[in-house]
Specification:
Blueprint lengths: L1 H20 L9 H37 L2 H9 L3 H9 L12 E6 L2 E4 L5 H23 L6 H19 L16 H19 L15 E2 L4 H11 L15 H13 L14 E2 L2 H9 L1
Amino acid sequence: MRRYFLTLSILGLSSFGLMAQNANAPTFWTEEVVLYTTLVLVFVTAILVLIVAVYVLQMLKTFLLKDMSEESKAKYEAEPSYWTTLWNKWNSLKPLEEEGELMLDHDYDGIKELDNHLPPWWKGLFYVTIGYAVVYILIFHVFESQPLQAEQYEQEMAAAEALKKENAPVVDFDETNVTMTEEPADLLAGKKAFETFCAVCHKADGGGIAGPNLTDEYWKYGGGMRNIYKTVKNGIPNTAMISWSAALNPVKMRQVSAYVMTLQGTNPPGAKGPEGEKWTPEEEVSEEGN
């Protein structure tokens, strides 16, 4: 049984190590995740081994008691078990018949006081926390070999910003020259982003709730691909329409804008009435010419 658990844990740890080293492994398996998972597996394995060991000891105890004489068995059963002795020692407990030794001279209306001390395990933990505090101060405040939380936060934010810039898509368009995309993958991605970020104000079908109806020909801030992209990117001051440039990259904003364009003329049930001025595709063409 013990060999089985050890073999299982070793195989598990090996598989995690291979997943962490594999370039095609999912990004979920970071070094920290592998480390914590390894520690949990080691802890669980240790608990299982301990349970098996206790079970084996109990079996041995049963077999030994069978072979004992009645006198030896009675003497053995009269003595406190190892766990009982350990429990009393760790909690500094004394038998009831010995509590008179702990009695203090305090006496108030027949109420007396025992001179019980804190359990050794509690004092041990207290001393461990003191030692931990000393080590912490030396590492973080005296030698400064590790960054404090604020500094670590700034480092991680800087690393995240650098990673964001490194992985940012290269685009050659902005709100002045963005064009419509009809690629199914782009429209599907735009639909998902719209349902996630925009549906709360414009409804999942674009019919409008707090925000305007996006399915008719009337636009408060201009229709067409470029105006929609501009609104998504910059937002509208003093309104609920915020700028989404911090949450969505240019490619994602283009996908959302293209999906909004596909909502034209869908006329969903329960849509809001017209708001703004009527917009025609010819107006966007004239803007391109200018």
